[in-house]
Amino acid sequence: MIDFLTNYGSSPISVTDLIISMIVAVFLGLYISAIYNFTHRGITYDKSYVITLTLIAPLIAFIITLIGNNIALSLGLVGSLSIIRFRTVIKEARDLIFLLWGIGVGLGAGTENWFVSCASTFIISIFVLSLHGLRIGTQRSQNLVIVVTGDDRKICEECTSVLADVGFEYRFRSLNASGGNWKVVYEVKSAATTDENLSAFSDRLREHNNVKTISVLSPNTTLPI
Q1: Which CATH number fits domain 142-217: 3.30.1300.10, 3.30.70.260, 3.20.20.70, 3.30.1360.120?
Q2: Do the beta carbons of residue 142 and residue 48 sit within 8 Å?
Q3: What is the structure's pLDDT at 69?
Q4: Entry pTM
């Protein structure tokens, strides 16, 4: 055991295997980036993240090929990563999955498991595309926040009446008064929330003289794959 831990010798690296590993990692990294672009539906798209997905696979493959069975190099890598301290915040859990996917491809290519890397990438891409096509995780109902301002407290009663007539499932959130202005906030949830429903709600509410402004907000900023 002591001899194994103190063995700092490095095995020769095959140039041919290194080139093949890098080529496989690059093409699989490009493939993963293409899948990410095709299935992305959020508003937090970052071009630098896509470039990272493309480059992380060949980078990991290079590092794994360089380390091989050398414990000294592996310990040096751990020390280097602790000094660098990656502080990039992953905004979506889905982005973390793609990042781990790229790292896995790099590990497979670096250990010369080329067929496993290619086959696994193809199978995972089928899963991702299937989830995207079937809209797994998409909410059947839409959540909205409706903010109405007016110059009289009666806007609360008027909003409640119109929401009930339109058929929305609503929840009262707050009622604020500042000077002569009143603001009422409702949380709306309905499986049938469409543009026609919202237009009907707005038109009905504008018939009341007390209403000044109507704002409809969507709290959901990301979409599932």
Answers
A1: 3.30.70.260
A2: no
A3: 64
A4: 0.67
